[in-house]
Write a structure and sequence with these properties.
Blueprint lengths: L1 H18 L5 E9 L8 H12 L4 E6 L7 H14 E6 L16 E4 L17 H11 L4 E4 L2 H10 L7 E3 L3 H7 L1 H14 L7 E5 L17 H5 L6 E5 L3 H4 L4 H5 L5 E3 L6 H7 L2 E4 L5 H4 L6 E4 L3 H7 L7 H4 L4 E2 L2 H10 L4 H11 L7 H9 L1
Parallel strand pairs: 1-2, 1-3, 3-4, 4-5, 5-6, 7-8, 7-10, 8-9, 10-11, 11-12
Helix pairs in contact: 1-3, 7-11
């Protein structure tokens, strides 16, 4: 599989090299959204702001739906526009860039798809050929946009970049979350799709995808047991990795009588956070966005030792770092849920450490720097 991908990278790079003979156009912006191509992701928010404030710019996209399944578009159309764009925005590592030296006239802006990371990633976690290629691809980055001084240090290491290429500006996604009017519009769009959830108390369960779930996708939560501790007006929302979600049919959820709703395919995770009264997660980076809502979080880390030993491990002491109780079993999870817990001070402190700016001007600062 790695060899097949590398052949694709080489073909893309060969086309890119030919198209580099064409002039770079500063009016052209190429946006790579291979992680989150919704209008709630960093790329989607940047694209909307460019359309509004700089209509003279021409936008071209590469999303997670593109690829070798559409070979002509991918190898020719996408490669041409990437090679001739004056500005490139990324929300992920785009591996073909390991083989595509970029003109010095071009700004390559890595926004990433997470505000910060609990678990190690990039050069701090990858191994072998993936580590080598991602390092080469990330060398093209001219501007790494981060949220705080702590993130600056972590991300500079994860991307193997000097810290002077990392800029503490805040992320466009934060502007959306802090905009009460726009978030209310997002909530109403959600309730239009799920009218039966209006007025319900929603808890979002959003676990991290484990590598061992490739072969054996599963849900590490006994739904029948957990529902027994929920009130009649309480609903459990499930945000699962596509690979895990695909392992369950719609009939699996129907038997819970509407008390379990699989929202894994919902296009915007930010909206799911906004409609949730509580978050149950483990090692996911969405906790950094959820803390902006100042609501309770529970960390269901049933495999903590295994994940730390065999997984990616963590940047901080996990149990002391996360802003909520860490539970190691379903029984403990249900006990904490029923007994309740204090969270406001801890979440407020976590939020203050995570965000240097909370002024809804992250996108403006970004545009002032890049354009």
């Amino acid at each position: 599989m790695i060899m097949i991908k590398k052949i694709g990278y080489y073909v893309f790079a060969a086309c890119f090299t030919v198209f580099r003979l064409f002039p770079v156009k500063q009016s052209k912006v190429f946006l790579v959204a291979t992680h989150d191509d919704s209008d709630e992701g960093n790329i989607g928010i940047v694209a909307a702001a460019i359309r509004e404030k700089m209509p003279e710019k021409r936008l071209y996209f590469l999303t997670k739906r593109d690829g070798i399944r559409h070979p002509f578009s991918f190898f020719f159309h996408k490669a041409y526009h990437l090679a001739t764009a004056g500005t490139i925005f990324l929300d992920n590592v785009f591996m073909p860039m390991a083989f595509t030296p970029v003109s010095k006239k071009v700004k390559v802006v890595q926004l990433w798809h997470g505000t910060e990371s609990v678990k190690k990633f990039g050069q701090d976690a990858d191994t072998g050929e993936v580590k080598r290629l991602s390092k080469k691809a990330d060398e093209r980055i001219t501007h790494l946009i981060v949220n705080s001084q702590r993130t600056k240090r972590q991300y500079a290491g994860a991307f193997a970049l000097p810290e002077e290429r990392a800029y503490v500006l805040g992320l466009p996604r934060t502007d959306l979350i802090l905009d009460d009017r726009r978030m209310e519009e997002k909530r109403q769009q959600f309730y239009a799709k799920y009218p039966e959830l209006r007025g319900k108390k929603c808890t979002l369960y959003a676990p991290t995808f484990r590598d061992n779930e490739v072969e054996n996708p599963s849900l590490a939560l006994d739904l029948e047991s957990f529902l027994s501790v929920l009130g009649e007006d309480e609903v459990l929302l499930l945000r699962l990795h596509p690979h895990v979600s695909a392992n369950f049919s719609d009939k699996e959820w129907e038997r819970y009588g509407g008390r379990v709703v699989n929202v894994s395919a919902y296009p915007g995770v930010t909206t799911l956070l906004a409609v949730s009264d509580c978050l149950i997660s483990d090692y996911s980076s969405i906790i950094f966005e959820y803390c902006l809502f100042e609501r309770p979080m529970i960390f269901y880390a049933y495999d903590l030792e295994d994940f730390e030993r065999d997984g990616r491990s963590f940047y901080e002491d996990y149990e002391n770092f996360v802003p909520g109780p860490v539970v190691r079993s379903q029984k403990e999870l249900e006990k904490v849920w029923q007994s309740g817990f204090a969270y406001r001070e801890r979440v407020a402190a976590f939020r203050a450490e995570t965000y240097e700016y909370l002024d809804k001007n992250a996108t403006k600062r970004l545009f002032d720097l890049i354009f």
